[in-house]
Amino acid sequence: xxxxxxxxxxxxxxxxxxxxxxxxxxxxxxxxxxxxxxxxxxxxxxxxxxxxxxxxxxxxxxxxxxxxxxxxxxxxxxxxxxxxxxxxxxxxxxxxxxxxxxxxxxxxxxxxxxxxxxxxxxxxxxxxxxxxxxxxxxxxxxxxxxxxxxxxxxxxxxxxxxxxxxxxxxxxxxxxxxxxxxxxxxxxxxxxxxxxxxxxxxxxxxxxxxxxxxxxxxxxxxxxxxxxxxxxxxxxxxxxxxxxxxxxxxxxxx
Length: 254
Known about the structure:
mainly alpha
């Protein structure tokens, strides 16, 4: 138990260091609010990825994550930690993030490969798509008050395929063909879910959906997964593939 507490203290110090460096960067380097937020998102995620090899007790992670969820909630309420809370859009992603990490750790406790895959969709896909969409997105679409870009969504799709396929290939015994077709199916589904998620809820919905789809389909054959994929594509061919209406706005898209 003592080793768990020491590990939690060290990881907690790592998170605080990331927050501190981000605040210094924001003050001295003047990065965009989206870039500083997603940099914290990504850097903290590197620590999160190591949780299955650092912690043996679920309650340690739940406790650690709860402390930082409270920290994020509190700093937003009092106007601190602008490197995370400085974006103009309304978002609760800072709270959905630790909630997703804690629940994912509990659910995937005995399956670190699935934990890594689901966490990567949160850590890498979301952050990269937001930064790329904000920097290069020109074709905008809106979902209620949120705006996104076609370029950001396409980036999310491609990156999610990679972060699903490669870990499954390297960390599991799943057949290469099954891994590839499953990665296509999962990346398509979670991209659609990310596209309609409001106020940062994609930080919870995307990794949870990824984990569910891994549990649901990794035991299926290539043919069955392919059938599901083509069924989904047929449905999408009959409806608009992107939610909301196109916009010609320059507002942040992710």
